[in-house]
Amino acid sequence: MARPLIPDELWSLIEPHLPPERPVPYGRKPLPHRKALTGIVFVLKTGVPWEYLPQEMGCGSGMTCWRRLRDWQQAGVWDRILKTLQDQLGRQDRIDWSRAALDSASVRAKGGGRRTGRNPTDRGKLGSKHHIVVDRRGIPLAKPTLTAANDHDSVHLERVLDSIPPIRKRRGRPRRRPAKLHADKAYDHPRCRRACRRRSIQPRIARRGVESPTRLGRFRWVVERTLAWLHNFRRLAVRYERRDDIHEALLTLGTIMICWNYLR
After folding, report:
1. Which end of the chain is more exposed for a tag (fewer CB within 10 A), N or C?
2. pTM, 2 dp
3. So where are the chain's domains?
4. Residue 154 neighbours by CB distance under 10 Å
5. What digits encode the pLDDT tens for the residues 45-61?
6. 122-to-107, 118, 119, 182, 222 alpha-carbon distances in Å
7. What is the number of other CB atoms lying within 10 angstroms of the CB of residue 171?
């Protein structure tokens, strides 16, 4: 038997954040939220076009699932679900704030759209970047930041750090700043180090001409692994959505699934 895309334990965490289903006294009843979410996760994992969502799954049409994804993104549902999972990880002392790692990865943007640009590493084809910051174990501390592929990584360091929400801990006040931040040579700029120190974060940024480019570093490899997990979701390995809010919703959902794997 194949494992369910939405296990009961995960659904019990997600359901309270979804809007109540509206009762329909007569006529065709709307698709239940759980079935719509199953269809969305299926598209995220497999990368199939929305219109090719198999009817045999009982998840309605692809456009019905797409509209739920859009509506829940506009209502902030995905952000609240991610915050709930992060708080649970924090209460269980699974988030290690002693070190964090930051990096980005480029993906091709097939349909163009906002926050795309000509990727200098992909023969100038349109693309976007996913920026992510993780803790020492590789747990995402914030949802990925979406930018154009031709934006320099260092420009968005402050934005990525400030996207970390206050995450609860087992004891004490919620926390949103790691003690140290590891990053590669793309962030080797004085402004990046100043930005870290202003936030009471000790920068551990690789220096050009000093550290070998063939090594990921003792602590930076975890962010590379998390980016690889994120792009294992085929809908995120290539940006098919022209609308940036739809792609951001899928990015957040992919991060939710990664955090859920740490909770299981």
Report:
1. N
2. 0.94
3. 96-239
4. 17
5. 999 999 999 988 889 89
6. 9, 8, 5, 26, 24
7. 7
